[in-house]
Design goal:
Elements: H1 2-11, E1 15-17, E2 20-27, E3 34-44, E4 54-63, H2 67-81, H3 86-91, H4 96-107
Length: 111
């Protein structure tokens, strides 16, 4: 998984701006899509499109055979990240369940 993520990052930065990175790759290291989320203790230089350091990272790993699902998930995540207030709500989530709750609420239009 790490090698696939690093290879993906080498082709083009996944720093999408406003302090966010959406790192992603499809790989044989996973059998189905999975994700990880982190708010960093200190911002990192991520070569982001707005040249700002990244403080919030979402990693998406998809199975090598699931190209369509991977693209759909990326699209959904980017739409959520562009919603006013969504990123702030993620930053303040203090448990994994709170992160999932905020994502679910946002997908239902309740952010």
């Amino acid at each position: 998984l790490r090698a696939a993520e690093y290879a993906r990052e080498a082709t083009l930065s996944t720093g999408v701006g406003e302090g966010h990175a959406l790192t992603h790759a499809r790989t044989g290291a996973v059998s189905k899509s999975c994700a990880a989320f982190a708010v960093l203790a200190a911002p990192l230089d991520w070569d982001a499109i707005d040249e700002q350091p990244v403080e919030m990272v979402l990693l998406l790993a998809g199975a090598a055979s699931e190209q369509s699902q991977h693209i759909t998930l990326l699209s959904r995540i980017m739409r959520l990240m562009n919603r006013p207030g969504f990123a702030t709500s993620l930053r303040t989530a203090d448990t994994p369940d709170a992160v999932l709750d905020r994502i679910r609420r946002a997908e239902q239009g309740r952010v």
